[in-house]
Write a structure and sequence with these properties.
Length: about 350
């Protein structure tokens, strides 16, 4: 295992940002920046051992300071949508930025992918880890409580990318972290992912209104285009005359993950028969937003490539959207001095 540090330029405020390159014995390589704790590159071997960068992203730091699609991003304090950009906690109403119509998306225009992090890194024979941390002060983005944050990325010799999210608040608050990487197992420049196959271990999803805010209902996937319990191509049903797909312009929905325990479990798989690459998703979080990059429209990315709708796919493990306002959903409230500690793993194999 190896870790290398290199310069990535300076922010608008003059802060120096760096890249950290983690590499394992099979050549799999993950590149992160301390600006935003973002995943910049992920080189994964195909069935013949050829390495390809399988995440969408940018070449330059300046682009990550904007990054409207959230490529490779660490998202917080609250990933996904909060209805009416507000929530009530302990009898007090907290108002958030309205950056998605009347709602709040990914905590506002300055999510956790727009901050510089303190960094520590360490390696042993079988893995290499990088740890990004910072203190999110009381009322940052409108959320109560000082929040000590650590996100640790570990690359193993088993071709696993392990993401551990750890946070401790000094007041009751809302916490819901995720990673917003867009995957294309044929390579970031390969175009459409509609021929990728997906399996999701979920019997239900959470329907939304037209603004993509969950209604509080749980809908069965059986007999609908939302049924991924048997692996199928993403493109098979994406154009179906089905209200949730029409509302979102494709897949952009929270799936209610089936868990046998509170441990980290296999919840989804992505397979690309063209390259022979396969990605398994493991988590102990209750939900996952499955998103087919519906809003990409010519975004200029790495190597000058233009990214369009359906050129990547996200598996955003999470608490359900708007869970802070819907009592029937698993609660995204973390109590004062309690630990928020969850893990997501992207494991790469070949078929």
């Amino acid at each position: 295992m190896s870790i290398k540090k290199s310069a990535f330029g300076k922010t608008m405020e003059g802060e120096q940002a760096s890249l950290y390159t983690l590499k394992n014995k099979s050549g799999m390589t993950a590149v992160f920046s301390d600006y935003g704790a973002v995943l910049v590159k992920l080189l994964v071997p195909d069935a013949n051992g050829k390495l390809e960068d399988v995440v969408l992203g940018y070449d330059k730091l300046e682009q990550y300071t904007k990054n409207a699609p959230g490529f490779g991003s660490f998202i917080g304090r609250h990933a996904n949508r909060i209805g009416n950009a507000s929530f009530i906690l302990n009898g007090k109403t907290y108002e958030l930025e309205k950056n998605d119509g009347n709602n709040n998306l990914h905590s506002g225009r300055k999510s956790f992918n727009k901050f510089l992090y303190e960094t520590e890194y360490y390696e042993d024979e079988e893995s290499a880890s990088i740890e990004f941390s910072r203190l999110s002060p009381d009322m940052e983005q409108g959320f109560p409580g000082n929040l000590d944050i650590t996100v640790t990325y570990t690359l193993t010799d088993e071709n696993e990318l392990v993401m551990e999210y750890l946070a401790v608040p000094d007041k009751d608050t809302v916490v819901n972290f995720t990673n917003h990487s867009y995957f294309n197992l044929s390579g970031h420049a390969a175009g459409s992912i509609l021929n990728h196959k997906v399996w999701i271990n979920a019997d239900q999803f959470t329907p939304t209104d037209d603004a993509l805010i969950p209604t509080g209902e749980f809908a069965d996937v059986e007999g609908t285009p939302m049924d991924f319990r048997t692996a199928k191509e993403i493109g098979r049903d994406i154009q179906a005359e089905y209200k949730p797909l029409k509302q979102a312009g494709g897949y952009d929905h929270n799936f209610v993950l089936k868990h046998e325990s509170n441990d980290v479990e296999l919840v989804a798989e992505l397979t690309d028969e063209a390259s022979g690459r396969k990605m398994e998703v493991y988590t102990d979080l209750p939900g996952m937003q499955f998103y087919t990059a519906n809003f990409l429209n010519g975004e200029k990315g790495k190597d000058g490539v233009e990214y369009h709708s359906r050129d990547g796919v996200c598996f955003e493990t999470q608490f359900y959207p708007n869970s802070c306002n819907i009592p029937e959903f698993p609660s995204s409230v973390t109590k004062a001095d309690q630990q928020y500690d969850y893990v997501t793993v992207y494991k790469f194999t070949t078929i």
